[in-house]
Amino acid sequence: MTSYEAAGVDIAAGERAVELMKSRVARSRRPEVVDDASGFAGLFDASAFLKYRRPLLATSTDGVGTKVDLARRLGVYDTVGHDLVGMVIDDLAVCGAEPLFMTDYIACGKVVPERIADLVGGIADACALAGCALIGGETAEHPGLLQPDEFDIAGAGTGVVEADEILGPDRVKPGDVVIGMASSGIHSNGYSLVRHILATTDLALETQLADLSRPLGEELLTPTRIYAQDCLALVRGGGVRAFAHITGGGLTANLARSLPPTADAVLQRSSWEVPPLFMALQAYGTVPQAEMDKTFNLGVGMAAIVAPEAADDAVRSLADRGVPAWVLGEITKGGGAANLV
To answer: CATH number for the domain including 245?
Structure first.
């Protein structure tokens, strides 16, 4: 007899996954979240915007990329949710927006309730860290398109910022200082190159390299650091001109997006030490430096451009919040480029 279950879709498993994730999702709740009894939509009380003079909504969407393949191979599912939130919510923080809420989408070959609960639970935990609510999502079972153990995740986030307080290139001027904020690792960009190195060398996920404290696979799955609340704390302290989230394209390409056409960022390579994980991947894969620069964050996950008189306080504030930070470079007259020297 033909049935939906015979076609590979297990509705009961999906319902079980929802039950397992409920308590962790609840931890990300904000006061503005309104319950929708039907569960078809997430509701957020927009009267919260009445305190703003001219509120602008900011939105971002992203995924985790091929890092999910390493999570699948290692059977670790509760960390890539942090990566998803970092990729989405930290993009909102770049313009100075307060993150409000997020939704997620998971596609998988087979719904394994515990696996889905771990994935969504990781997203919810990271939303709580970022100060936003996880108010909805979807899990889709795609038998025949994905293998039973394969999955992908994506998400979208919404934030709010005062129209006259938007950060960005128009605020940046020569003499400003660039502050680097340490990454927790590779974050979520460059994993296609990582997987290529694994496939073409004798490196394996189980490899224990001398300079690393954990097996390579565990190092590679280190969750993305979430900077949203740290960035907002800097904004409240004053003097912030712009941020740059260091994702695909590396440090210089992303920082250039936050520069006006009349200024350059001159960044000092000697101002920080590239973490051993990046050095190991470069050595084993014989990756040219230029390729490393445009593929990985190399230890800098977020950058802030601040007024010169705010630089010392910014570094101290970040350190107090547990984020290693340092003066990475300066803004000079130029043509809108960021350069490592």
So the answer is: 3.90.650.10
